[in-house]
Structures are given as structure tokens and as C-alpha cells.
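Troubleshooting entry. Yesterday's outputs looked truncated, so today I'm pasting the complete records for two proteins to confirm everything comes through intact. If either block looks cut off, that's the bug. Protein one:
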Amino acid sequence: MSPTSKSRIDRLGERLKTGEVSDDDLRELDTYRESFAEASKEVVAAIRDVTGLEPGVRPAKTTISIIEKLHREKTMKLSQMQGIAGCRVVVPGTREQDRVVGLLGRAFPRAKVVDRRQKPSHGYRAVHMIATVRDKLVEIQLRTELQNLWAQQSEILSDRIDPRIKYGGGNQAILKETSTWIVALEAEEATYSKMAGTFSEPTAKGYKRETLQNERARLEKLERDIAEGKTRLIETFKELNKLFEERPRKVN
């Protein structure tokens, strides 16, 4: 994006913040959204190439979502807004998540990495990478299966109960509780993965038979605990959805 066009986009962003939006402004914003398409395709192709995974391509942010974000974050410039276009990669657990982050870091060496596992955003945990391609910011959301489950549930609750939930408003209790629950489950998964690599054949050679029996029994118990924990979490979300399924949807 040239300095002139960047300045123009930022001026558009300032007009959108005022709430006095003309039809011409909306058309210009829509054109800007569409300008991310080729960069997004390039990022998706690179992810397939370096990881062998199939990203989920999400639609570009709607004009309404962009305007709402500008209203929430008053100092943000439209040309610097992240997440207008992007994709999502879902992997089984945190060890695979770390591995894929490393692969993508080599594919996009200048990408900004935002690790929301260490500093969750209102309970939301994931790793986001912001790659600059064709002078466009393209967001890669890298989630574990559990993190993705939580994010989907957050969307449902935001839709059913209170749109502010996603941004730290409303009743956060259930989301904070389940986010903490997922942290514990993922820690158990990481322990299981490490133990499985240590005490499985043929890497287990050199350990006493009694040690192997004890550790493998511990491994089996840990596997059961993880499976039971995931089942309870899923059932909790199902019950929560059932509780609110009769409520009318909130209109943002």
C-alpha cells in the first residue's frame, strides 16, 4: 500500500469512527476489504505447503465488524487493523501447536506472533500470527482442538446471551472457568505426549521392567483422565447451549 493510499484508508477509518458514514464510505470500505483476497490466498497456499495442514479460510471481516472494532479501539488506524482477512489452523494439542508455529515462523519470518496462551484475551487462548503479504496484514489463528471448542462456545454465548461477552463484558464466569479447565487439560495432554514418547517401544529400552509397568499404568490412567475431562467439558457446553437455546438471538 502506497503512503497516499494508506493515508486515504486511515482518513476513511476516522470518518467511520464518527458514526456519520456515507454510502461512498461504505463502498470504499468494501473495496478495501476485497483487496485482501489475493494476499489471503497466498498465505493459505504457504500454510498448506510448509505444514501439510488444510487451513480453514474465514470470510473477511464484515463492514459492520470493522466499524464496531474501530468504535471499540478509538486509537486504531484502519490501515493497521489486524484480522480483516485471515485463516485458521486447528491442531490436536499444544505440542503440535508449538511445532506448527515454528514452521510458519520460517515461512513468514517477519510475522508478528501474539501468544494468547500466556496472556488470554477474556479467556480466549490461541496463537495468532500476523503475516504481511502484498503489503496486507493477514491473520493466522492457530488453535488446539480445545481452544477452538472454547472459542466456538464464546461465539454462541455472545450470540445467545450478550454480545459483550467476547470482549470482556457481561457475565464472564462460565467462560473463565472453562478456559482454566482447558489449561489444565492441555497440561495433562503435554505430559501424556512426553511420557508416551519416553516409555513406548523402542525408546523404553534401558528401563527396569517394574519401572516400565508403573509408568505405563500411569500413562493409561492419564489417558483416561484426559478423555473423561474432555467429555465433561463437552457435556458442560452442551448443557449450557440447551439452557439458552430457546432464548431469542441478540442483535448486535
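Protein two, checking that the full record survives here as well:
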Amino acid sequence: MNRKHDGRNTNTQERILAVAENLYLAGGYEHINLQSIAHALEISKPALFYHFKSKRELFFVMLIRMLESLQQALEEAVDQDQFSTQEKLERLMEAIQRQPAFDVTRFAQEEMHLLTPSEQQEVMQAAELSLFAPVERVFREGIERGTLRTHDTRLACLLFLNICVPLSHERSPLQLQVQTGKRREMLEMFLYGLASAPRPL
């Protein structure tokens, strides 16, 4: 999934991608301004285009880079077998909160069309590997361990991510709540529900 630009300075590429990512997180694709990136790095626009042929290519490589970083963080969070299912889910929630926010819904609705069909497919595959696969694996392990009842792991994954992903947005009111120690309480609500008695048959 890593894209190499043969013969080009990798350090400069990484610096360009880091600035582009900060701009993207601040305001989406439209906020990525090539002149601003060049100015911030004290390079010329031709030098920037030496590394990335277009804003679209920069956007694509930046997204893949973000998702690869997210995948690594989530896999590291649940890599140890000694953690219980609940502990792994709590570690996933914490890891997602620490990572830059990739809004899959916004991308699909507002930004996907900016990429070529092959790039769209690669980004969605990267999102599957980085977001969905690590979480769904924990739910499957929970079923195998007997700590979770048999359920639709894909649906559970989607529900869990709908709770977690907003936490990675700096302006989210949920993030403030979680910073005050509510993460475990939120997870227990997700796992055990709010009913005071078992659901009637």
C-alpha cells in the first residue's frame, strides 16, 4: 500500500504530507492549499509538484498514509492476548481517540469523487483494513472465548465505530466527556446496555 516516489526525497515528501494532513483535518479537502503548503515548508510550488503531480495525488497519498498509521495503532492496541475482550475494546477506543480523524462518511459523500476509480477502491480497502478489520477481529475473538454471545460482528463493529470515531474530532462534545474519564462507562453501555432487567423473551 505504500507509494514510493523513486528518486525523490522521502523526508520532503513526509513533510509535505504532514502539512497537508493538518490542513485536511482543519477543514477537509478544500482546505488543502498547495501554495500554503509550499509557503509553510519554504519550498517552491514546482518543488512541491516534483513530489506530487497534482493536488489529487497528494490527497490520495495523504489518505493512505493516515489510514496506514491508524491501522498500525489499532493493531498494536490489541496485540496482547492477556487483555480481556472489554480491555481490548477500551484500548481500541483510546487508540481511535488519539489518532487524527478520518471521517469515512464525509469522504464517501463529499470527497470520494475527487479520486480516480482505482484510487477510490484503494482508499476504501485501506479503510477496511485500518478501521474495520482490527475491531471486528476483537468481536470474533470474544465469541470464541465465550465472553460475548453470538452476534453479527459486522453490525457490532459499525455500532462501535459510530461511538468511537466522533471521539477523534477535536471539537466533538463527546471528546470532552471522554477526557474526563467516561470512556469505560461508554463502553459498558455499549456492551451491557442500559436495561435494569434482562430483555423479555
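Both blocks look complete. Sanity check on protein two: Residues 1-7 have pLDDT under 50 and may be disordered.
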